[in-house]
């Protein structure tokens, strides 16, 4: 197993940033870089740039930037240790236990994932057993689920006694603590340990990278709980999880559209019939967290409702979460069929395509329902009431006062078209309904530090920027570039990393610097500086460097001159002074420096402080 630094290096060698980002947003070659829509904020004009050669990304809209580790941190909403683990799994790099973050109970998240993966394989073997899995396979055949789909989604079977999984796992050297932390087993009131799932068809739940995080189980006997999901663990949060996302992600990104269904078999059936951008919500309504995940991959969500679902309530919920996250939500209903799985079996792919194509925009659907409550009245009073009620609903559902300015503009434009009102009138109505809360700026990945307050600080930051663009410049300054003199903490930390790398390795590059940063805000700042520097050619960098170094040296001389002048004045005022020879040397230095300035002769400089002698 590798230590922390070696693991990062190995991951960087094996994982291409372009490949990782392309799974979430299409990239197009623009000169030396690649360009696409930013996966971290809503935009219509691409501002997300990827430097394939230097392996860093930068969004010129929201400011997000960094390397592959920073990208995964933002994508999955995790801290650096978890991003490291995710990429290590992808690269096939084994980490040492010291690289893991704090444990949950006795098990890390990686332990839980491994236990879940082992359990999924155990359940799959049970389903494939000619005798044990016969009835479950018959049920799947009756639902039209093919053997290929069974294998692709990793379906399995939990059947037998109360401790079948427990005993098999212990035989495989998996301890009880890990089984309990993974929620594969539970602890009874009397302290006994037993299997969480029994007599159920099992649906392994995986995250977007294919890691096993939990299970869903459908009863095969008369159980009041038809479906049962794993309890939440350190690895599994139901409101954030989407079934089938690991298999659907590529198509969702390429089509910019996600089909959202409710059940496991609905999702599997969609994939089987060619609708491979389908995902399921684990039997819950679409949540804010679901939309935060989906906005990374698509622009449109088609919510396919079961025939027995209350359309108005579902539309209202979907509209609210969609508006807040900048997604177009469309609604389709499987009228005449129990659920999408049944619909596909009875009507086929062609009819399902028609159903999706005719899906209605949730905003339009809600507008029409609001008008229907007023019996389609056309008087000015009724129109005003309908408009007021609808705008109030949209303001409440979208949390209009709390979302960013770009998303506010999108909602204003949609309502202006729908209500046939000027955009500014609609904006005013929305502000009235949100107590005129003013819009926020676009969600910024980080705040750029304030402009340096002195010539010396400006020179230090400029030199830092140029050395990031051309690392060989660092050796020309050496200790003269004092990182400790940089006042702004964010700049200083980058300079400290630069110094540490130069001391340890004799040099550095941008990838080295990025790999030392675990804070996404610092990564954003570093990529800002790198992007600015990349716009200069080598001659311009050299010229700017010479100028900045000259300013830095002048600032240092001025600082020393002011210090010595202050000492001289203290002595002239009768305060304790250094010995005469030391003071004469100091005065001579001050004199030489002052004499070098226009209109200030050496004699005058000495005269100025003659009393100090």
* Radius of gyration computed on alpha carbons: 32 Å
Largest sheet: 5 strands, antiparallel
What is the overall silhouette? globular
Domains, number: 5
Structural class: alpha+beta
Q: Unreliable stretches, pLDDT < 50, 5 or more residues?
A: 98-106, 436-446, 598-606, 608-613
Strand order of the largest sheet: 1-2-3-4-5
Distance between the termini: 70 Å
CATH topology of the largest domain: DNA primase DNAg catalytic core, N-terminal domain
Give the class-level CATH name of the largest domain: Alpha Beta
What is the assigned CATH homologous superfamily of the largest domain?
DNA primase, catalytic core, N-terminal domain
Indicate the mean pLDDT: 81
| Helical percentage | 40-55%
Folded structure, characterized:
By secondary structure, this protein is an alpha+beta fold. The protein folds into five domains: 4-99, Alpha-Beta Complex (DNA Primase, Chain A), CATH 3.90.580.10; 102-236, Alpha-Beta Complex (DNA primase DNAg catalytic core, N-terminal domain), CATH 3.90.980; 373-433, no CATH class; 455-535, no CATH class; 549-612, no CATH class. Helices cover 52% and strands 11% of the residues. The chain has 26 helices and 16 strands. The strands form four sheets. The protein has a five-stranded antiparallel β-sheet with strand order 1-2-3-4-5. Strands 13-12-14-15-16 form a five-stranded mixed β-sheet. Strands 6-9-10-11 form a four-stranded antiparallel β-sheet, covered by helices on one side. Helix 11 (264-272) links the parallel strand 12 (257-261) and strand 13. The longest helix is centred in the C-terminal third of the chain and has 35 residues, at 538-572. Mean pLDDT is 81; it is low at 98-106, 436-446, 598-606 and 608-613.
